[in-house]
Design goal:
By secondary structure, the chain is an alpha/beta fold. It has two domains: about 1-200 and about 395-425, 3-Layer(aba) Sandwich (Rossmann fold); about 215-245 and about 265-365, no CATH class. Helices cover about 25% and strands about 20% of the residues. The protein has eleven helices and 16 strands. The strands form four sheets. Strands 3-2-1-4-5-7-6 form a seven-stranded mixed beta sheet, with no helix packed on it. The chain has a four-stranded mixed beta sheet with strand order 12-11-10-16, with no helix packed on it. Strands 14-13-15 form a three-stranded antiparallel beta sheet. The longest helix is centred in the middle third of the chain and has 16 residues, at about 220-235.
Length: about 425
């Protein structure tokens, strides 16, 4: 099979083909980001890089059996400018012929979403010699008029798949593909007929690392600013702003930078008690072994902004008390003895000795690590991204595909079954 991948990025399509066991003879990739190309070539050195999609000449390539790509979405996305496919003078582009004429005249286009028409140009050139070429186009949720235009241009309607079914990430995407289709309705409209993948029930705790470097945690002033921003948006009736997820939830769709307000998770930290009978944040005490408390938008005095930390006298071996969930302890009354752990219920002790405390939990906010972001996109462990910086890893993962969704779609390619039959005969 010869494959042409437009807007190839880190080559998630090639990963999915490999994971699905589909043999590829030639894999052509159109990509201009030097960091994405570097990672791709590091993992797939035989990839044939073609450069910019606007320069591709199909006649120079081997006959293509599968065309894949996710054209830029920033101007189509509801979260983007929503200017659609247009010129800088806001003239909408609605046909390939119109686009090619404007391109020939040197007209400037708005953003990058117009590059969908390059995908169509390449597809039409392939169909001149292979009407049965398989294709896959991925894009985001968009205004219905643009979704309809893309569907009419490609000759079929998309299937919507949420990556949440196969990953710990909510990521709704549209997939136009003729790999498997069906006719729908009185007029026999053709629809992509990829069934929904089985729900694996994955949540954040399934992808989070146990030990995380301090650099991934948000500083108190950053959290405070994010919380204030969230409050301003809520006051206006808008649901924008910081939205960190707990380990038992699915994360938001991975973004390009990996450092925004939507790519955040809560992490458990250890509160080992409180100073007085009131359990206000300002009076909470945290283990020196734990993490700092996440900031609230309206914090008062005391330790309200940073949390209070318990330090055990120097005479103890570790310098602090380790307390497990549900256990009780008391503070040492001198520098020559350590604190004591108790097994009785807290409500029995509080009435008599308010200096006894119980372990509870709080949260701290942090970013996903590159490995966690990689897992969120179901990129397999063997795929090595260490040849570029973490910033570039976040970028290409945010721009990339959820590999297991693409793998699921590719599982319906008939050639895979033929390859398996050939392998059986050889064995």
């Amino acid at each position: 099979m010869n494959v042409l991948s437009l807007f190839d990025g880190m080559s998630c399509g090639q990963i999915a083909l490999k994971e699905q066991g589909i043999s590829v003879k030639n894999y052509y990739a159109s990509e201009i980001d030097k960091y994405a190309i570097k990672v791709t070539q590091h993992n797939f050195p035989d990839t044939i890089q073609l450069g910019c999609v606007t320069k591709i000449n199909i006649s120079e390539l081997k006959p293509i059996d599968l065309l894949i790509g996710g054209s830029p979405c920033t101007d189509l996305s509801i979260a983007g400018s929503m200017k659609g496919m247009s010129t800088t003078e806001n003239k909408e582009i609605t046909t390939l012929e119109q686009y090619l004429k404007l391109k020939h005249k040197g007209v400037k286009f708005h953003g990058q979403s117009y590059l969908f028409w390059e995908y169509v140009r390449v597809l039409r050139d392939i169909q001149k010699y292979n009407l049965d070429v398989l294709f896959l186009l991925e894009n985001v949720a968009m205004k219905k008029k643009w979704e309809r235009l893309i569907s009419e241009t490609l000759g079929l309607f998309p299937v919507k798949i949420n990556s949440a079914l196969v990953s710990a990430q909510n990521r709704n995407r549209l997939y136009w593909t003729n790999i498997k289709t069906k006719k729908v309705g009185l007029f026999g409209e053709i629809h992509s007929d990829i069934p929904q993948p089985e729900d694996r029930g994955l949540v954040l705790k399934d992808i989070l690392e146990e030990k995380v470097n301090e650099k991934y945690y948000l500083k108190d002033d950053v959290i405070l600013n994010l919380l204030k921003h969230k409050q301003r948006q809520m006051a206006r009736g808008w649901n924008f702003g910081i939205d960190p997820k707990t380990k038992d939830e699915k994360m938001n769709a991975l973004r390009v930078k990996g450092t925004g307000m939507y790519d955040l998770v809560y992490e458990d930290m250890k509160q080992i008690g409180y100073i007085s009978n009131t359990n206000s944040q300002a009076n909470r005490v945290y283990s020196a072994k734990g993490k700092t408390v996440s900031l609230q938008a309206n914090t008062g005095g005391g330790g309200g902004k940073t949390g209070l930390y318990l330090i055990i006298p120097e005479a103890t071996q570790k310098g602090y008390i380790e307390v497990n969930p549900g256990q009780l302890f008391d503070f040492p009354t001198s520098k020559t003895r350590s604190g004591r752990l108790m097994d009785k219920k807290l409500n029995t002790l509080l009435a008599k000795k308010p200096e006894f405390y119980q372990f509870t939990k709080e949260h701290r906010i942090r970013r996903l690590t590159p490995l966690e972001a990689k897992r969120a996109q179901t990129v397999p462990d063997w795929y090595d991204m260490s040849v570029v910086s973490e910033t570039q890893q976040y970028k290409m993962l945010g721009n990339g595909w959820t590999v297991d969704v693409i793998k699921h779609i590719f599982s319906f390619i008939n050639i895979k079954n033929k390859n398996h039959e050939k392998n059986k005969l050889k064995s």
